[in-house]
Amino acid sequence: MDVRRGSLILAAILLTLPACSTSRTVKAASVKPHKDRKPAPDFALKDVNGQTVTLSDYKGKVVLLDFWATWCGPCQVEIPWFKEFERQNKDKGFAVLGVAMDDEGWDVVKPFAQHMGINYRLVIGSDTVAQMYGGVDALPTTFLIDREGRIASIHIGLSGRRDFEDGIQELLQTSVNAGNSSAAMLIRAK
């Protein structure tokens, strides 16, 4: 193989690294103002135990909703971060929910999850649910959802760990402050 051909192959690989798709990668990492957030579509998908999981099950929590696949390299980069976010924040009203988009379903997802030591809930996704979320064309695609079930930010492709951390902390803090303000208003009204 000549050097020019090798360089072209390397360039092609690097261009596809940010997301497991040929789609253009666009990031909207910052948390949207409350007034600009749209409701996250509810869904019903099965977990590894065959139990139905809905997004509305997580109402009142900040949720990191991650569309991913076992074959996606950038997804594998983010999984250890998500495991740590789950561990650090689960007692603060936060949850990670992974939506696996593997065609082979639990046959490949279950052993992969065990190998990676995934500590958050996983469900098997569908094209219908992907379409509900605007047509998930690249993996990973991750949504940060506030306690009211509204989409606060969208990360398409591989995002920086810090982008996720900042968004999660802002939503956890904002949600706490918003709750305290509402409680204070109720007390004053009495």
CATH architecture descriptor name: 3-Layer(aba) Sandwich
How would the global form be characterised? globular
- Counting H and I runs of at least 4 residues, what is the number of helices? 5
Strand percentage, roughly?
15-25%
CATH fold label: Glutaredoxin
The tally of beta strands, per DSSP, is 9
Fraction in helix = 40-55%
Order of helices and strands: HEEEEEHEHEHEEH
Structural class: alpha+beta
Cα-based radius of gyration, to the nearest Å = 18 Å
What name goes with the CATH superfamily?
Answer: Glutaredoxin
How many discrete structural domains?
1
Q: Any low-confidence stretches, pLDDT <50, length ≥5?
A: 1-18, 21-28, 179-190
**CATH C-level category:** Alpha Beta
Overview of the molecule:
The protein starts with a helix and ends with a helix. The longest helix has 29 residues. It contains five helices and nine strands, in the order αβββββαβαβαββα. The radius of gyration is 18 Å and the shape is globular. Helix 3 links the parallel strand 6 and strand 7. With 190 residues, it is α+β, with helices and mostly antiparallel strands. Helix content is 41%, strand content 21%.
Defining key terms:
5 helices; 190 residues; globular; alpha+beta; seven-stranded mixed β-sheet
Q: How do the strands and helices of this protein lay out in sequence?
A:
Blueprint: H1 3-16, E1 27-28, E2 38-39, E3 44-46, E4 52-54, E5 62-68, H2 73-89, E6 94-100, H3 106-116, E7 121-124, H4 127-132, E8 141-145, E9 150-156, H5 161-189
Parallel strand pairs: 5-6, 6-7
Antiparallel strand pairs: 1-9, 2-9, 3-4, 5-8, 8-9
